[in-house]
Amino acid sequence: MTDLSADPFDTLETLLRHERESLLAGALGDIAPLMDEKIALISQLRDDPPDDAERVRRLHATMLRNQTLFDQTLAGLRNAAERVGTMQQLRRSMEIYDATGRRATIDTPPSQRVERRA
Question: Which single residue of 44, 64, 70, 100 could bond 8 by disulfide (Cβ 3.0 to 4.6 Å)?
Fold first, then answer.
């Protein structure tokens, strides 16, 4: 956990850098613990805002960049889930067109699996 007694601005910049690295590495499990720290640091900055407007602008740009990475990560996960769903649907049935152009569905037979119970 980050030392919240240090300068919250510096600590938040470091945390955002770690967040970005985790997003780029696909280490999504590392993101959740950072969120609580980020919320606490932002709360500290609201109570005692920094005077340096340029520094605040850079921090805002960094946060927007990370938000874009979050959005793209979620879009990628949605696409992957959709693709997996499509592949599962193809295992159950497949739509084709016959010689006259009519759509037909070919159902695949269920697999001959034996259910095992403990």
Answer: 44
Cα(7)–Cα(11) distance, integer angstroms: 6
- Tokens found for residue 57: 């602008």
Residue 29 CA, distance from chain mean position: 10
| Three-state DSSP state, 31 | helix
Is there a contact between 63 and 12 (Cβ–Cβ < 8 Å)? no
pLDDT score of 66 = 96
Q: Residue 73, exposed/middle/buried by CB under 10 A (0-12, 13-18, 19+)?
A: middle
The residues near 34 (Cβ < 8 Å, ≥ 6 apart) are 15, 18, 19, 22
In tens, the pLDDT along 32-84 reads: 999 999 999 999 988 888 888 899 999 999 999 999 999 999 999 999 999 99
